[in-house]
Amino acid sequence: RVHLLVEAGADPGTLTRLYHRGTAAERRAVLLALPHLDRLADGPADVLPLVEDALRTNDTRLVAAAVGPYAAARLDPHTWRHAVLKCLFTGVPLTAVHGLADRARGDAELARMLTDYAAERTAAGRPVPPDLTHALTLTGAPHQEV
Questions:
Q1: CA–CA separation, 64 vs 100, rounded Å?
Q2: Are the C-beta atoms of 71 and 64 separated by less than 8 Å?
Q3: What are the φ and ψ backbone dihedral angles of 50, each rounded to 5 degrees?
Q4: What pLDDT sits at residue 145?
Q5: In the prediction, which pLDDT does 41 show?
Q6: Does residue 61 contact residue 96 with C-beta atoms inside 8 Å?
Q7: pTM metric for this prediction
């Protein structure tokens, strides 16, 4: 499906229609095709609302596809931080977050959000996802017990 979208050079209108009318697999294909189409001279101008929509779902396949290269290049810092937390909430491995190390480096706000999330999990008697500690380390925040 991704290959078909790329070979067809799908335009933003087509991508949007396919995403909103498609099955989860078709939506995932649209999200996975975005970075490939973006490199084309006449690629999608900005289909970021599709990524943002996928990040609002609880479908882990869509969340994982939404945090790929297109999102890494286009999401503003606030939305990107929430995408990282969404991955932690839903169990999507942070390896799915394209460019995590680069974007997390020196991000004090992400460090604060991760620390708060870990504290909430601990207070509720729930385990802290191992990926959280890794992401916190990437921010460069002073080592703290989470």
A1: 13
A2: no
A3: -70, -40
A4: 59
A5: 47
A6: no
A7: 0.87
Q: What is the DSSP string of 96-118?
A: GSTTHHHHHTT-HHHHHHHHHHH
CA distance 72 to 51: 11
Query: Helix, strand, or coil here: 76?
Result: coil
- Write down the number of H helices and E strands in the chain: 10, 0
- What residues have CB less than 8 Å from 119, skipping those under 6 apart? 146
Tally the residues of the chain.
146
Give the torsion sign (CA, 27, 33, 34, 40). negative
**CA nearest to 14, candidates 25, 65, 56, 4:** 4
Domain ranges of the chain: 2-139
Summarised one tens digit per residue, pLDDT across range 1-57 is: 776 777 666 778 888 888 999 999 999 999 998 888 866 545 555 789 999 999 999
pLDDT given at position 96: 97
Task: Give me 132's structure tokens.
Answer: 């959280």
**Residue 144's pLDDT band (boundaries 50, 70, 90)?**
low
